[in-house]
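Hello again, I could really use a second opinion on something today. I've dropped the whole record in just underneath, so have a look.
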Amino acid sequence: MMKILALTVLLLGALPGFAAAGNLPDGPYVSTSASALEEVAPDYSVLEMQFRTVQDSPEVVRDRTNGAQRNLLAVLEEFEDAIRERRVESMEFGEEFDYDRDQMKRVMIGHYGQFTVRLEVDDFEMLPQLHYRLAGLQWQSLSNPRFMVDDREAVETRLRERAIIKARERARTLAEAGGSVIGKLWGIIHQPMHDLAGRLPDDFGGMPSPRLAVSESSDRFALAMEPRPVRFEVTVGTVFRLNNSGD
């Protein structure tokens, strides 16, 4: 699926977007931009969670943190076959401070411990149950699943090639309409848009999210999560020299 985002024909004059990158071609030229769009089935989903506790003593903090990790490991063992990768992104212990208005300065109020874990889940059937079980633990934050693909570069490369072909065809059509033919490709601007994984077709401003549907599942209150295709969009701008049709 492709769409044209912008279309501009300039026989003589300036094009600010390209001028910023360098001088424009001497003589007539035509400029077009095109976009290629593709939805790809996800290969896995990502869950991220952060635990944080603040206590009076570092001993209690470590005890609570260790307890949270044991609870997490107990859940992950049940879903070992569904998780392709798990890792601790960060872990930190330290003194907790807060601002005291009476003293007009930051004062120590205790000790904290925190860690962040990232999971990659490739069994989408087990994903709702896993997310449901994780939600029952004590987290400062637990993300909704984000659906991802393994080889983003291959998808983007394929889309860049399609977008350039589309832009070239539009440039050729416009040149012929003006009594000219396109010459050599003078320059390309690549403007890749970020992936729109999990977004509704008319919602390009929110965070990617799974589609939720109330249905039967093995966990009584777990919601089924239907994986959404990961949407990629790549935009390119091209400038072609123009030749007279008789040349």
